[in-house]
Amino acid sequence: MTSSVPPLDRIRVGSAPDSWGVWFPDDPQQVPWKRFLDEVAEAGYEWIELGPYGYLPTDPARLAEETAARGLKVSAGTVFTGLHHGPAVWDTTWAHVADIAALTREMGADHLVVIPSFWRDDKTGQVLEDRTLTSAQWHDLTTQTERLGREVRDRFGLNIVVHPHADTHIDSEENVSRFLDATDPDLVSLCLDTGHYAYCGGDSVKLIETYGERIGYLHLKQVDPEILADVVADEVPFGPAVGRGVMCEPPTGVPALGPVLTAAQKLGVDLFAIVEQDMYPCPPDKPFPIAERTRRFLRSCGA
Fold it and tell me: What global pTM score does this model have?
């Protein structure tokens, strides 16, 4: 690509601990948090997410000092929820959400990424519940998500962005559309993860063009179509699929990120586009060169 590519001036690019193979607050296979911060800044990113709560320091003064020293800012925190279980899980959900939302707010971010719970274990593949929700569970999922959006906004001033994810109940085009059609746009927006959506058969550009007003946040990643075909055929759970390399380095996979970013730019709103290349577990020296090349590639797209 050449310098004639128009600048995507509404897109704010960042990366996340996930791109360094970080899935858990504490895991000996993961890079230490200071190394992540050093490398993400050196790779050319200004924005980061908090990642799993407890991976980065949870004391806001300490975290603010560490990020500022590297020229980094926080775009969002992340929470995991099982809201299709209804009001019975609200108290435990809120206890989990409140600490993360408080730190997210303290760090000056505006977004809370909400990931639905998995219907099968992402490590063992054990089936935890039916992969298809009943009508009653769909009702609980949508109404409790609206409740979460309202409470997070009223108490912390944050916007929730729900993240369709492989091996959850909000995954395919059909289920994402059903979820969006049943929730209040003032309370619930979407974190469109291009890799997860492609993994589940969806078209990111089409989703942006169809539900543009609901797109509140982007995660940028790609899938390897050949590995994905084997994963689908073998019914491989998400965790082992990542181990097979199903999420690959841009621009070698799908979807093409240039058209996705162009479609997002056309919405005319400021959007974060946070790189997430799932590769847990990975050697500690693997993430940085990929992150650097990915940042260079995104600049070539205008971002």
Answer: 0.96
